[in-house]
Amino acid sequence: MLKHPNHIAIFASLYLLVYILLIQLGLFTNIVYIMFFLSPVLLLALAWSVVRYGNYDDKDLTNDQEWGYHDRPDKTQQH
Question: pTM to 2 decimals?
């Protein structure tokens, strides 16, 4: 599962959703505490998966570019 950043991102999002719902509904307090203490492990696994196996499918920056804003033409033009 760690080799697929999309899968672990979906899992982390669902984990957060369940965590928030359990807190808001006041259900299973012990499980909420366990989920709270396990959340750093999930966050580290997500970060590791993205850094290790994530793919960047856009063009690389050239030597004269400092920032890679693709959605802001005013930021990509050289002054």
Answer: 0.65
